[in-house]
Structure formats: C-alpha cells, structure tokens
Design a protein that fits this description.
The complex is a heterodimer of chains A (499) and B (163). Chain A has 499 residues and is α+β, with helices and mostly antiparallel strands. In chain A, helix 7 packs across helix 8, helix 12 packs antiparallel against helix 13 and helix 16 packs across helix 17. The C terminus of chain A is likely disordered. Chain A is globular and about 65 Å long. Chain A contains 18 helices and 22 strands. By secondary structure, chain B is mainly beta. Chain B has 2 domains: 82 residues, no CATH class; 70 residues, RNA polymerase II/Efflux pump adaptor protein, barrel-sandwich hybrid domain (OB fold (Dihydrolipoamide Acetyltransferase, E2P), Beta Barrel), CATH 2.40.50.100. Chain B is 6% helix and 58% strand. Chain B has 1 helix and 17 strands. The chains are: A alpha+beta (499), B mainly beta (163). At the A-B interface, helix 8, strand 16, helix 12, helix 13 and helix 16 of A face strand 1, strand 2, strand 5, strand 6 and strand 7 of B.
Amino acid sequence: MIAPFRKVLVANRGEIAVRVIRACRDLGIASVAVYSDIDRGALHVRLADEAYPIGAAPPAESYLNIERVVAVAARSGCDAVHPGYGFLAENADFADAVASADLVFVGPPAAVQRGLGEKTAARRLARDAGVPVAEGSEAISDLAAARSVAERIGYPILLKPAGGGGGKGMRAVRSEPELADAWRGAAGEASSAFGNASLFVERYLEGARHVEMQLLADRDGAVVWLGERDCSIQRRHQKLVEETPGPSVDDALRERLGAAAVAIARAARYENAGTAEFLVDPSGGFVFLEMNTRLQVEHPITEAVTGYDLVALQLRIAAGASLPFAQGGIERRGAAIELRITAEDPYGGFLPAAGRIGPVRMPSGPGIRVDHALEAGAFVPTEYDPLLAKLIVWGADRPAALARARRALRETVITGVPTSLPFHRQLLDDPGFNAGDYDTGYVAERWTGREAPRLGDGAAVAAAYVAAALLRGPRAAARQIANGTASAWTHAAREDALR
Amino acid sequence: MRYEVALADRVLRVEIDGAERFLVDDRVVALDAVEIERGRHWSVTLDGGSHEIVALTPDRLLVDGIAVAVTVTDERALAAGRSGGGVRSQRREVRAPMPGLLKAVHVHEGDVVEEGAALATLEAMKMENELRAPLRSRVVSVSASAGAKVEGGALLMILGETD
C-alpha cells in the first residue's frame, strides 16, 4: 500500500508522540519531532527521523505555540501534522493554521472542531440529532446565573467549562452553600486550561457510568463505531482506568450508543477519529456529554479488541482514503483494560510529583502492551501532564484480562517518583471492581488513601531484613543509606541529634 | 545490631549479628539475600519462597509488587527514645512538591491536625492540589501564606508531634 504521507510532524511529547512516530514508521512515513528545552533528551526526540526545538518548557512557549509548530512543519518539508491528544489537539485555530500552510491536519477540520468544541453548541447539536442530553444551561459567566439555573434543575449539579473538556475545571456541587467556592475554583481552572472562564451547569447524574463510543469517519461521509469504553474509574474527573467491553453494556445498549454516536457525527459532518462521551444510568438510559475531536488517551484498548491501528487509520483518512471496512465488518474479540500510571502519590492525595526516573522494569508477555516514554534517567517535569505510562492488557474475556492486569502490576517497577501503581494494585484486588460493579463515584467512595496491609509472613521477614540491612548499610556508605531507609520522622530526629 | 522494623501493619524485632546471621525474635532465620542493584533492589529467598524488594523512596519498599511503608529504628535510637534523651523534638517539614501558586493555607500555628487533613491548596499543572498531613501532628509554624507563588521545595510549614 502507498504511504498516505511522505513526512508528518508530531506536535506533542511523551508517550503519545512516541505512539504516533511508531505508526508513521510502520507506514513508511518519515517523522518530525518538536521539543521544548527540557525535552531535548526525551525519547520522542530520539525515535523521530528529525527533531527541532520550539521553545522554553512552559507549554505556552513551546507545545502550544501554533506559529512555531507550523513553521517547523513547513520548513522541514512535512505534508501533514498529527496533534496527538491534549496541547493543540482540540484547538481549531491550530487546525486552521496548519491548513493555511498547505499542510494536512490529522483530525477533523477546524469548522467541525468549532461546532463541537463549544460544549453547549455540541449539546444543541446532539439534541437536534435526536440524542438525549442532561438537563442544563447555556454558557454562563457569573455566579448569580449559575445559582438560578441550579435552583431550576435542582442539586446536585455539575459546573463544566464551556470552552473545553477533559475534566479540567469541572466541579460537582451538592448544595447551594458549596456553589460559590466551586464556581471560583472551576472558573479559575477553566480560564487557565482553556483561556475561557465561562461555565455551564448540567444536572449531575449520581450512580451513572461514564461510557464512550469510538468513531471513525471518512471524507465521503461514511461513519462507523468501533465499540465502547467504560471510563468510570475516575478521580476528580480524571480517568484512571478504562475497559472494553463495558461491564454494564449489553449488545442492545452497545447498538443504541453506537447509533447515537453516529447520528451526532453525521450531524456535525465529522471526519477522522473521534469519541462521543455518554453517561449511562443503572437502567440503561443515557445522555450525551461531549465529543472529543481527537485521539483518546485510552484508544489502545479499542485497538486491542478490534485489531486496528487507530493512528494509522487516522493518517489514511486524513490523506483522503475511504474507510477500509463497513460497520458490519468490524469484530471485537475479548476484553481489554488500560491502567494509567501517573506520577501521582495515591497515599498523598494524588499529588503530582516531579523527579528523575530511577531503574524501571516494564511488564511484558502475552496480552500486555505498555505505551510509555520512560527510561531510567528520564526527567519528569512539572510543566506537563503527569501520565508516565499506559498499561494495556488483553484477555479472552474479562476475568482473563483482570488476571493479566494483576500479573502486569506484579512485574512493574518504577522508581524515582511516586506513582499511582499502589492505587491500581488495590483496585485490581477490590471485589466490587472485579465484579464490574462500579460507577463514577467509585474512587471517591472506596479509595481510602491507606495502604492495604497484605504482606505474607515470608515477604514481611524478607522486607524486614532488607530494611535492617539498609539502615546498617555497607560500612562505607552507612550514613547515606541509613538516611535513605529511616522514615522521615526518624531522619529528622537524627539530624536534630547531630546538631 | 538489633532493629525494630515497622512494616505496614506489623512490627518485627530483628537482629543482624556479628556473624551476619539474621534473627527474628531472637531466632535465626535462614535467608539468602542478593543485591541486584546496590542499595536499591534485592532478591531474597526464604523457606523456598522467592521475594523481590525494591527501595522506592526513603520510607517505602516495594515487596513482591506491593508498596509498603517502612520505619526502622536501631537499638541505640530505641534506647535513647526510652530514656527520653538523645532524640529531641521530632518534626517534619512540609515543602511544596512542585512550583505553583499557593491558593490557600488551611491551618494555623498551634493547630492539631488529623492524618489526611488538608494543610494547604497548591495550584500547579492547572489543577488544585491538596497538601495533606501525613500523620496526626501539631502545626509548629507556618512560613507561607495564601496567594504566594512558591518554588518546588519551598518550605511551607513545619509539623511536630502532638503531646
């Protein structure tokens, strides 16, 4: 098959830049990386065929700098730009700038992005296409308006940014006294994340699951759905775990969600890969939330069950190719789960951490895929998203996938920064999660922030030996290592004692 | 040397003696430990069981894939603690884990806070992050105020033991 493009600029960093570079190489396309000053040594820079600096570490000065990214693409002789997710992926001005430079934007055209990116416009579009949406408001810019909408539809409500998605700037409000604080926090976050402080109010559906449907659409107007992903395991509206098939989704519901997603895509004249997000209530009713006009972080679980390479398909569709399959030709096999490993400490309120990665061991073996850009010595900066790695497991059915996820976690070692791995280990042992019985409130209700004391006797004795040996240390390095093992309390006490 | 090792939910009294033997509750345990990476990564076999241990942070070990908090005290420190001398006021500094904007400080000097209580709110990475008390403590001093832009590692407050 002929490569869809000659050379593609990857306007991103981290694991997703690596993912796109891999698809390019698989298709015989040359790849161009861009990097900020602190990413000079990053993996995506080394894996690409060409790499160019685009500015200082803060995103606004590099990865969000439309002019510089487009200039590099034009100067290096690219014919297309892939935005990955985040950064400029849902920025219609960027898609416009790419098109104006006679380059192909790998994603939906700017006009489509604008129609769906303004979240209240997307709600209207869905309603007109016959898809239900949650009761809510138009975009509002002051607290008094929010208060009167909330009184009309009743608490609990959600405050959501009108200008963008992804869970940033979102707040659940259970009663009127919480509203003012929540408004300030949400508007502040929305303003810094999307440059637009306006919010809208939506009725908060408790006990609902977050289920999304993957779409592909070509330029000729063909639209197919590839299957759902349940993303209900979230903390502060940030997804931590995704799985397909959704444990609560039967064939009939899947068909209904697929048809609704396709109806919205047709109404929006959608092109390329996209994802329609829904909330599904326990009785199987659902409402449309928003359309993500880009590749999702969790796209690999859909790849695992369908066998498709979604990034390669994005590139082919962007080059004008027709969808290579019809709805009836899409098959899904088995079950897949993604665990997002982030540089966040689950025992410290999921506080993100920066640092230099120490030794790393990623899991491997049957049914396991890890998308990451981690290496020993790699620096995790505070400037960007704390996602370190995506652990994707596949099994013939859900129990097999769960067993593989537990195996993969047992094999994984990441040192140097705290990670969310302990959270995932506890979740995979949780009876509710194993039974598939969870909704979007699950993490807030169940995660205690305390470790599960589950060491066997042998493991405890072995660990006690290591702890004691560390404190004593080999004579030469005794002090350094002793400080390294004693707890912070003891450590502080020792330093005080030495003064 | 004798040690007290607090490990997740249990406390073990152990000893590494002059002959490099390892004892738990004064009984010798036949255990074979190999350092895969010095000071960081071990393989320990014991009664035929194979255990892998990685030092993740100063106070956390990864034991067979499970992260557990660990505190070790040697006999000198234990003795000092019991006699009331040697170990002075035990305190813990709360520092900004990353650069950001300090949105709020929720505690005052002298407050006693429970484990997990919110101490301050730091906005970074476009998200508001709660800094929480690692254990029940008394707030000894507060050295930053709401609205301040802080560097990563900046001292925000000092916690001490409650009486």
